[in-house]
Amino acid sequence: PDEAAAHGVQHCSSRQTTQDLERDMERLKVSFQNKTLALQRMQLTAALRNKVKQNDNDSGLIMEIMKQIVTLSRAVIEYQQQAREKEQKLMDLKRKRLSLKKAGGQKLLQIHTMMKKQKEEQTSKNVSKALETICNNLRKEREMTTVIQNIFQNIIIGSRVNWAEDPSLKSIVLQLEKNVY
Amino acid sequence: SKKMQRRQSSKTPTQPLQVHHKNQTDLSAWRKGGRIDPEKSVQNHQSPNDQKNDSKQDSLEQALSYFEKVQDRVSLKKNNILQKHLTTVETIALQRGLPPEGFDVLLNVALSGKLADTVNTRLLKSLVPASVIPETSVVSSVSWLCVSKCSDNVQLLFLRWLITVFDFIDRKEQLHALYGFFFSFLQDEKMCPYVCHLLYLLTRKQSVKPFRIRRLLDLQAKMGMQPHLQALLSLYKLFCPELVTINLPGKMKTYFKNSEGPWKAAINTVRQRNQENSPVSKPLLLGTAQPQSRKRKWNTQLIIPASSTNKNNLEEDREKNHVDLYSMNESFPVEQLQTFSQLLQNIHHLEFPSQMGSVLTNPLLLHYMNCIKDESIYLRLYYWMGQTLQEECTWCVADNNQYEEEFKDFLETVYKTECFLQEGFSSCEVFLYKSLPLWDGFCCRSQILRLVSWIPLSSFSEMKSHLYDPLAQLFFTSSLYFKCSVLESLKELLQNWLNWHVIHLDSESDSEVHSLNTTLSGLVNVVAELIHFVGWISTVALHLENNPTFLLYFILDFYETVCDMYLRYNLPLLIMPPAGVFYPALLSMDSVSLNQLCYIMYRYRTNLVAAKENELSKKKILQFKFSSQTYQEYNQYIIAMVGCLWTSSAFQKDVHPQGLHMDDELLKKTTVQEFKTSFNIVYHPAMMGYAVLFLQQAWPDDTTFNFSLIKKWNWYLEYLYAQGLKGLKVFIESSINRVSQAS
């Protein structure tokens, strides 16, 4: 402790921030606590030993308790070992789970790319012109229908009609959002 | 009329003219089990409660039929009947909630503009569902909105109501069909925020069309970048990133204002009341249909339309898909997902439900979520979860104290989902950062601590101010058990991080796609910060609680994970425990701690040796080498330990600045004769029991307990190992060169 104090005086002269001082203080505290703890425990154990050597009633009690402590410690250590093993197993399971998750993600990605490729292959197979024109026309019709659907929607909205009251109008309205295939 | 017929029981014939009274008595008869006896039923003896309920039911019936037939322009002030019926509806709604049949009538009246605004507002405010809201009534209401005969305020109130009770609507197919109609309401500036919120809940991939995106961009140009427009655009961008090309800022915490309004309290009351009456909903089983839960909105489970017509349509569409080459992908409606094999067959075109919260309790969807890497799903789930957590947090919002049980269950569900998916949710993380400073450490304790252990790993560390500071405050002022619980959850947090790191170590390319954006040095810093934090709080806690064994156990357990980070988890980081932890463990009164400390020091040594070997053999290109400071710290501890336990020279040899180096004069003052040996394996406080028992066994005749008899330590060590002190064994075998059998 003396050396530490001397050290402190030396350092004060150089500029130190509050944090450094606090840190030093904490270190000194811990050092003091450790040393005090050592001394206390030393004295305590020595006293216990002397008591046990006296071999009277009290020492008998102390012996009993010590035996119990040893048995309990043994049990605790055993359980600790079991817990350690179980925790290890759990960690392994978690890691497996994580790696399965990664694998699952990759697999799904593969499925998606495969399906995309399949579709592209399908579409590229039928190159015959007639079919292509038909498909184009179909697409145009579909787009027109979509436009008409949306125009209808807007007309109905704009006309401020209570479309829900008329069942046939209602069923038409509920169809207007559906994409045409 | 049709509505009357619906309300009548199936047993009575439909007689449209004799409306009121027949209805009343028939219903009461029906409730008693089908006896149709008009005169008798009125006079029958019922329990007071039943009578009250029946009369309430009757008056509700009366009120509803009145509203159905009411003509225009009935003034509230002048008409007593209207007042009476209005009050009836309000009282019943706020106590028990309205039955599904009531919504049609009341919504029609409120939105058709027949009555004054005050009446309409009161009606809308009393639209509290007792169970479900039929979709047809909502559809009719939307139609009335198109007519727009009611005032603007009523329209706004209706939209807010719709958003609040969205989860109570039994089916949503027709609502999805009306997407375009809702979209047209964006025009109105006042309605715009609420409409955006509603659209956010309703949007599916097929709703995203280029002209809608253009419309939103036009609105944005007109009104500026409003958060609600931004929300909808972000959602569109997630569904179809190729169509939305503008840049949108990243995740926003809250897009929409909380519009729960006047219905929330009433819904809570009704729910509580119903929970008293109804049985608990059954647990979820894989492969079975889920009944719609009557619990709060975050427990909504998927509603499965039982009709067979849906299935037929799906098959027809599938056939069409084969023929038509340019068809768009028809996605499998997730409400029909019931078995695992169905999931596997349709995994390439599955679509998530509009209520993302229902994913939490659906194992099939969780399996799907486990594989999918779609950002939009996570965004929607996080948004919903963040909102719910924030709104329902029982200590952040004043009214919520009574709902602690439900909130606890919800947290439990979230935790289980995190375990299922083996990853943490960033919405949970944000919630924890927001709520921990206000937490009392009591409410939902184990759930919160478990959620802490799943905080995701990222190299942007805001953890110091957001997690460590509030946690430290709670830690220092709490009981021993709380301290141990916190240490345990921090250990699990560390383990989860390390596991995550190990698995993602190989896939360097994935880390760019992954939102975590981790670099190795960033990771190391974050982990180091956690370990230093735990070291600090452990030191202080040990001193505060006067070195209890229980606390030391948890602390050493944490360091058991820390010491093996290099070998087990491939993280090039080695941090020794602080002196405030090491020395109390070394000087502990019980052998469990000492044994554990020995084991930990042995593992540290193994890790350091392996690191040195790798360094020397240059097997791997090490970005990090353990600094000489680490080696120095380890050496200091080892010297102290060996000095204590083996060579009886701790007080001279210990060079650690916070260690046990003390002068002989000081030591003599303790009046302990043999202070030098007072911490070796015979005289150590933790070993005393063993030494005594050993003496009794080895020298059974001697009753003087002469400890100095234990000179040859080989036998003694064997005895100790037999008592289970395996940690001591590995430590001694690895760290001590036993040349002679000297003591």
Written description of the protein model:
The complex is a heterodimer of chains A (181) and B (743). With 181 residues, chain A is mainly alpha-helical. Chain A has a domain of 54 residues. Chain A is built from 5 helices and no strands. The longest helix of chain A has 69 residues. Chain A starts with a helix and ends in an 8-residue tail after the last helix. In chain A, 10% of the residues are buried. With 743 residues, chain B is an all-alpha fold. Among the domains of chain B are: 210 residues, no CATH class; 126 residues, no CATH class; 62 residues, no CATH class. Chain B is built from 36 helices and no strands. In chain B, helix 6 packs parallel to helix 8. The longest helix of chain B has 27 residues. The interface between A and B is large, with 75 and 90 residues.
Task: For the structure shown, list the relevant keywords.
heterodimer; A: 181 residues; mainly alpha; 5 helices; 86% helix; elongated; B: 743 residues; 36 helices; 59% helix; disordered N terminus; disordered C terminus
Beta strand % of chain A = under 5%
Note the total helix count of chain B: 36
What is the end-to-end distance of chain A? 88 Å
Quaternary organisation? heterodimer
Morphology of chain A: elongated
Helix proportion range of chain A: over 70%
Q: Between the first and last Cα atoms of chain B, what is the distance in angstroms? A: 104 Å
Largest two-chain interface: A-B, 75 and 90 residues
Radius of gyration of chain A: 42 Å
SSE order of chain A: HHHHH
Q: Based on helices, strands and strand pairing, what is the structural class of chain B?
A: mainly alpha
Report the radius of gyration of chain B as a whole number of Å: 35 Å
Give the proportion of residues in helices of chain B. Answer: 55-70%
Main location (chain B): nucleus
Keywords (chain B): Centromere, Chromosome, Nucleus
GO cellular component, one term (chain B): inner kinetochore
InterPro entries (chain B): CENP-I
